[in-house]
Amino acid sequence: MEFPDPQINDYAEEYTTPESDLLAGINRETWTEVLMPRMLSGHLQGRVLSMLSHMLQPNRILEVGTYTGYAALCLAEGMGEQGVLHTIDINDELESRVRRYFAESGKQDQIRFHVGMLFRYPEPKEQWDLVFIDADKENYARYFDLVIDDVRSGGWIIADNVLWSGKVLMPEKEMDEETLALHHYNQKVAKDERVEQVLLPVRDGLMCCRKR
Ligand SMILES: C[S@@+](CC[C@H](N)C(=O)[O-])C[C@H]1O[C@@H](n2cnc3c(N)ncnc32)[C@H](O)[C@@H]1O
């Protein structure tokens, strides 16, 4: 399923603030030089993340799933001077590229890039204002459970790809493992009294949870 309609997406991008030169460069280089470029948030979703970050003005951000650093840099835009963003990725092959992009952003002092898995990083024990879950789909529920107690009241957990190209509409028995995990994630947070949530059908679906 292709959504939104590509023409609507183009129209939305046309009337959305353009990407910075750095983000446009990361977008271009990711598509020409890196495997699986569809994973990158991209122009429209990147501006949504930036806008949300400006609204929340977070001091502590955690991203699970850095990839080429595009979303991390969008999320970092709303942080104040004291803000720190931690981002984690299991893939060490992109490390030097990501560190170069973070250095070019001028925000490298505010960004802590960890190569590894979230489960191996119990520290630092932070009080998160904003968590962005965008890594292996099968573990979304686990990431939510891992961070929820460390999200402040009024803080947010945003999960990407929760519509999974529309595959979450399939009958459960026909779903593959990733689709089922994402569908269960949506059901799980919808039942969780600790959060209120809105599923934004932006790009591949952003589940935005606000901790009560
Ligand atoms: C969809 S991409 C992230 C895209 C990025 N957030 C953006 O919007 O530009 C998913 C990333 O999660 C990483 N990943 C997969 N499993 C992981 C794990 N267990 N721990 C940390 N990162 C993981 C992958 O290496 C990949 O780079």
Briefly say what this structure is.
Helices cover 37% and strands 21% of the residues. By secondary structure, it is α/β, with parallel strands linked by helices. The mean pLDDT is 95.
Topology, pairings included?
Elements: H1 6-14, H2 21-33, H3 42-56, E1 60-64, H4 70-76, E2 84-89, H5 95-105, E3 111-115, E4 128-133, H6 140-147, E5 151-160, H7 177-191, E6 195-200, E7 206-211
Parallel strand pairs: 1-2, 1-4, 2-3, 4-5
Antiparallel strand pairs: 5-7, 6-7
Helix pairs in contact: 3-4
The structure holds S-adenosylmethionine.
What does this protein look like?
The protein is α/β, with parallel strands linked by helices. Helix content is 37%, strand content 21%. The chain contains 7 helices and 7 strands. Helix 6 links the parallel strand 4 (128-133) and strand 5. Helix 3 (42-56) runs parallel beside helix 4 (70-76). The chain is globular. Bound molecules: S-adenosylmethionine (SAM).
Number of strands: 7
Strand content: 15-25%
**Helical content, roughly?**
25-40%
Secondary-structure class:
alpha/beta
Sheet of most strands? 7 strands, mixed
Q: Enumerate how many helices there are, as a single number.
A: 7
H/E element order: HHHEHEHEEHEHEE
Q: Bound small molecules, which ones?
A: S-adenosylmethionine
Q: So what's the oligomer here?
A: single chain
What is the residue-averaged pLDDT? 95
Strand order of the largest sheet: 3-2-1-4-5-7-6
Low-confidence stretches: none
Cα shape? globular
| Head-to-tail CA distance between termini | 34 Å
What is the CA-based Rg, rounded?
16 Å
